[in-house]
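Hi! If you just cloned this repository, the fastest way to understand the data is to look at a raw example. We've pasted two of them here, unedited. The first protein comes first, obviously.
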Amino acid sequence: MAETVGIPEARDSRGTVYGRAAIDADPCPFDRNDLVCGGCTLPVTAAKGHPRRVPGGGETWVSACFRRWPRQDRTHDEGCDFDFERRATELISDSRGTLTKNGEHYELRLPQEAPSPQDAAPERSGGTHGRIARLQVNAASFRLAPTIRTAAGILRLLRRFAGSDDAVARFRAVYGKKRLTWEQFCRPASDAESIMKHLRGQRDRQHPLAVHGTVGLVSESKQGSSFSLLDAYAGTVLHEGQERQVRVTVRSRNRAALRGAQQGDHWLAYGQWSYWVMDHVPRIEIQLWIDTPSSLVTWR
């Protein structure tokens, strides 16, 4: 049986656990003939990182990982955390039809009705918006709930596999007639540069984004009319020749839409994001306005 997604951890007979970084270490810290999967008793071997040719020319880098021994018929023990195919199949079962398998890929189907842009004035005056987009309360927004929960489940699975390239490559998002790689669709808040690049692009080529991160602060405006979830990441981006501080924020006029998020929670939000360039300080806010909890999910 072919195995296309590597195992991120292995342990030896002494119980010592090794991550992928140990595979390319010199000297090697383990006996390659004395390893089992980090989540069960399946015997595994270590595969070093190496270049691989891609169709059409060029090369890509294959990250180091642990794999089953070649020509081995045995599979992972029942319930193993690192049985990728079983865990992906469980995601399909729990997805309410939002996740399907197409060949070797798992495809997350996004609602056909895109979140509808409408004006959403910020609490603070001054500044310009690159694009205004607020998720309206309509039939489409209520259908987001199973989609975004499935997206969060995929994200947690990929984190368990240490974000390995081969695991990430197995997931795609389908938006209308577009098939998006997982990295095109789901981006960490810390990747503010690529999010800004997407938002500056041609509108007809844009698509809703799922952005995720860690809650840094949840606050209420001075007027008490809006609430915000501020991501913990604080970085800089270059905008029109000027370096500016950048923060990622989910905003709402409905306190319940933020799902009782607390500092340190993981979060993921989906919709048509925008950015706000402030006038009097060198700062940009990448923001998503939401009206209902159906476009945000949080977890510890």
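Ok, and the second one:
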Amino acid sequence: MVTAFHLAVYLPVLFPVAAAVGARPLAERLEPQLATWLLTVSALALAALSRAALGVLTVAGWCGCRWPHWWGAGR
């Protein structure tokens, strides 16, 4: 079963696949300098998102806990 937590963690890891598919058509339509800057900035942002998502997975693995239970504990 896919929960909101799973989407929040795994979706940033899958975003680079969509970016890779759209990179070539985008680079062909834009001027080279603008395309280079846009692709570079998007690659850095996607790398940061992937790193953050993997960091969350690592911390959750170290804790040996399930974070969605923490979120519902205050109710």
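That's it. A detail worth noticing about the second one: The mean pLDDT is 79.
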